[in-house]
Design a protein that fits this description.
Layout lengths: L2 H27 L9 E10 L3 E10 L4 H29 L10 H17 L4 H54 L6 H14 L5 E5 L5 E5 L4 E3 L4 E7 L5 E7 L6 E5 L3 H4 L3 H36 L16 E4 L2 E4 L1 H5 L21 H7 L5 H42 L3 H35 L1
Antiparallel strand pairs: 1-2, 3-4, 4-5, 6-7, 7-8, 9-10
Helix pairs in contact: 1-11, 2-4, 2-7, 2-10, 3-4, 3-9, 4-5, 4-7, 7-10
Length: about 450
């Protein structure tokens, strides 16, 4: 081997190990970077007979287990969907108060029943009548407060859907642009995986990859979202029912043209957007109907009893309803609240004319507490609490599953500090060995030059 060939061999080893050291240093620097695939140095011989003999290196991203990565996308989507639902239901449950707060509509109805019972013992007291009426009003206010909390969560869900759709659209645009360069850039591959991981928290996605690293992304139902040729954008219609539309986007101008008015079925129930759609279109309407039905049942029973009551000294019912309804919200007749003395709590028997205010009607009003409708009130409270607890348990379970899947994926293609430090020592020693060869060749050249 000539000195020239030896020198070229050592120089090639020097540069190859220098690149390997740089790649290893990059790995160590990104040990905590999400979705970073470690860089692997693949050395191979590079020689021209009688002219050059050496080594070169190819720095590539570590192979990612695509099956495991797909599982992490599904885990992320499930966690985000259940957490969106659980957070909303927990806030609705909080509007009922903690045990002992006695602010739920069931507690307030119990207080109203107690006030009616006290009124039956002192039927001539206008103050007792006013207290009973105000207690009933407080009960229906509590129904309305819970209904308002549900409606507020519905409005908030629409806002979060709009924010989520905007972020999804931005991610789809970035994925399209990364698709154009990923075949030539390891960094673009990392960014692409990061964008896909974030996208999976908003939607359940299916990802198809080509050999050069480009991806095609669809919803769980098969609706295309982005590929190397273009991308699409989501839109939100509040409804009801709330819908998510799909538009094609011109990559050059950014102009959009709607191609589907509602792809909610294709989105499914995964991801934050899927969870919010389920919350908005299924869970919240069900709870709203449950609370309204509970309030209506009690109001109907109270009005049925009140219709048979008369005021003191009257011989017939006043004909005015005790509870009024407006757009699903119930309240005590404002005329009675303004004039509690007119609250009819006498109950004539056997067709006799009511004389003194005997309070029998108040006892019958209090007896509504034993009706099926009153028991349904307590059941509705339990249903709200059960729904919130079940949603929270599902969210915690999916969080644990997603964390485990992401940890496995990171361990498969991520950075192991022990391994990287060992490689760093190996490449540094190889670099030093090649440097010593260069130094030895230099000494030989110097000796030859002195001889000449």
């Amino acid at each position: 081997m000539s000195l020239y060939v030896a020198l070229n061999t050592a120089v090639s080893g020097l540069f190859a190990n220098q690149q390997a050291i740089a790649a290893t240093s990059e790995n160590i620097a990104n040990v905590n970077t999400p979705n970073f695939a470690r860089r692997e140095a693949h050395f191979y011989s590079d020689a021209i007979p009688n002219q050059f003999a050496g080594v070169d290196v190819d720095i590539a991203r570590a192979a990612v287990d695509r099956f495991l990565q797909s599982a992490t996308y599904g885990g992320n989507a499930d966690e985000a969907a259940t957490r969106a639902i659980a957070d909303a239901l927990s806030r609705i449950e909080a509007s009922l108060g903690a045990p002992g707060d006695n602010i739920s509509y069931a507690n307030k109805l119990d207080e109203a029943i107690a006030a009616l019972t006290e009124l039956s013992a002192n039927p001539s007291s206008v103050a007792a009548k006013a207290d009973a009426l105000l207690s009933l009003q407080a009960a229906f206010d509590a129904f309305a407060r819970t209904g308002a909390a549900i409606a507020e969560e519905g409005a908030a869900a629409v806002g979060r859907l709009e924010q989520g759709a905007a972020r999804v659209n931005a991610l789809l645009g970035e994925i399209y642009r990364l698709n154009q360069v990923v075949q030539d850039s390891n960094g673009a591959g990392d960014l692409l995986d990061q964008r896909l991981a974030e996208l999976s928290t908003y939607l359940s996605i299916d990802v198809t990859r080509s050999e050069d690293g480009r991806v095609e992304v669809s919803t769980a139902g098969g609706t295309l979202l982005v590929n190397s040729a273009g991308y699409r954008a989501l839109g939100v219609t509040a409804g009801p029912p709330t819908a998510v539309s799909l538009s094609s986007v011109d990559p050059d101008t950014g102009s959009a043209a709607q191609i589907a008015a509602d792809i909610s079925a294709s989105i499914g129930i995964g991801g934050e957007i899927g969870g919010l759609l389920t919350l908005r279109n299924v869970d919240l309407p069900r709870l709203q109907a449950l609370v309204e039905a509970s309030a209506r049942g009690v109001a109907t029973q109270l009005n049925a009893v009140y219709a048979g009551n008369v005021a003191a000294g009257a011989s017939a019912s006043s004909g005015a309803a005790l509870v009024l309804e407006a757009n699903g919200v119930f309240s005590i007749n404002p005329a009675l609240l303004a004039d509690p003395a007119s609250f009819a709590i006498a109950r004539p028997t056997g067709g006799a004319t009511a004389g003194a205010n005997d309070g029998a009607g108040a006892i019958l009003l209090a007896g509504v507490a034993k009706s099926l409708e009153a028991r349904a009130v307590a059941d509705s409270i339990a249903s709200i609490g059960s729904a919130a607890r079940n949603a929270d348990l599902a969210a915690e379970t999916n969080k644990a599953i997603a964390a485990d899947l992401n940890a496995r994926a990171s361990g498969d293609s991520g950075v192991n500090l022990d391994e990287e430090l060992s490689n760093l020592i190996l490449y540094q020693r190889a670099y030093g060995a090649n440097a010593r060869v260069i130094a030895a060749v230099d000494e030989l050249w110097q000796s030859l030059l002195q001889i000449i």
